[in-house]
Amino acid sequence: MSDIPENRRRPGGRAGSGMMDPNNQIASKLRALYSAIEQEPIPDLFLDLLERLDGAEQTGK
């Protein structure tokens, strides 16, 4: 059974289903943003920092 009262349930089974639901719209936009960021190249400065940290770790062992 669901914790959501019957008069508050949405048609279609699950509560919150459907593209008109604000939560689905937010989730969709967040997925699109994450996907776009995932495709961006890693900045050279960050790669250099990672290499220096790896070197320091190897030196410390």
Describe the structure.
With 61 residues, this protein is mainly α. Helix content is 56%, strand content 0%. The protein has a domain at 29-61. The chain has helices spanning 22-38, 44-60.
Summarize the structure in short.
The chain has two helices and no strands. With 61 residues, it is mainly alpha-helical. The chain starts with 21 loop residues before the first helix and ends with a helix.
Overall number of strands: 0
Query: Separation of termini?
Result: 56 Å
Low-pLDDT residue spans: none
Largest sheet: none
Shape: elongated
Secondary structure tally, helices: 2
The residue-averaged pLDDT reads: 82
| Relative helix content | 55-70%
- SSE string: HH
Strand content: under 5%
Q: What is the structural class? A: mainly alpha
Q: C-alpha Rg, in Å? A: 23 Å
Give the helices and strands, then pairings.
Layout: H1 22-38, H2 44-60
Please name the defining characteristics of this protein.
61 residues; mainly alpha; 2 helices
